[in-house]
Amino acid sequence: MLIGVGLGPGDPELLTLKAIEALKQSDKVYVPGRMAAELVEPYAEPEILDFPMIRDYDTLNDIWKKNADHVANHASNGTVAFGLIGDPNFFSTFTHLKRVMNRYYPEVKISTVPGISSITSFASRTDSEIDSSFTVTDGSDTNHKIALKARHPRQLIDQFSKEGYDEFVFAEKLFSDKETIIKDLNDIPEQGNYFSILYAKKK
C-alpha cells in the first residue's frame, strides 16, 4: 500500500493528526526533498528520492519510473508513505508518482491523507478572505473544475458539459460518518446539500 501524506506548508505544528499517524505506522517513508524530510523526522526515518524540477519529459519519465520501481519494492508487501509539502493531490510530486505506479504496479493500493495546501496557507498568512468563486492556475490549460455547495448537481453537470467537461464526481460530507462519494454519472442526484461538491474533469 502507498499513502501520499500531505505535510502542510512547512510549519511542523500544521501537520494533521492523521498525517502523523500515517507516518508512524508506515514500514517505509519517502520524501522528495530536505524540507519534507525535516517535517517527517520526528515520526519516522525518511529516505529522499530525487524529483528534479526540469522540463525534459523523457528524462523525467525515466526518473519517475525509477522512483516508482524503488517504492514498489516496499509498497507491494507493506505500507509505504510518501510525505510531501502541501497536499498530495494539488500540484504535487505525488500525482506523478501515483500515475506511474497505477500504470506499472496496478496491484498496489494507493490512498492519500490531505494536507494544508499552499492555497489556504496563502489566505491565512496574507489575511486574504475569499468568499466567492476564484481561479487557481499555474498557467496551463484549465481541465478541472470544482463547484462547492453543489445543491443542484445535475444542473451543474449540464452547464459544465457545454464547457467540454465529461467526467464528474459528486461528494457530500467528506470525512464524516455520512460521507457520500458518487463516481457513476447516472447515480448523481438532482439535489445536494450545503456540504456537497461536484468535481468536473476534461478527459
UniProtKB/TrEMBL annotation:
UniProt KW keywords: Cobalamin biosynthesis, Methyltransferase, S-adenosyl-L-methionine, Transferase
Known pathway: Cofactor biosynthesis; adenosylcobalamin biosynthesis
An example Gene Ontology biological process: cobalamin biosynthetic process
SUPFAM superfamilies assigned to the protein according to its UniProt record, in alphabetical order: Tetrapyrrole methylase
Domain Tetrapyrrole methylase: 1-146
GO MF terms, alphabetically ordered: cobalt-factor II C20-methyltransferase activity; precorrin-2 C20-methyltransferase activity
Stored CDD domains: Precorrin_2_C20_MT
EC number(s) on file: 2.1.1.151
Protein family per UniProt: Belongs to the precorrin methyltransferase family.
Stored PANTHER family: COBALT-PRECORRIN-2 C(20)-METHYLTRANSFERASE
Protein name as catalogued: Cobalt-factor II C(20)-methyltransferase
Organism: Methanosalsum natronophilum
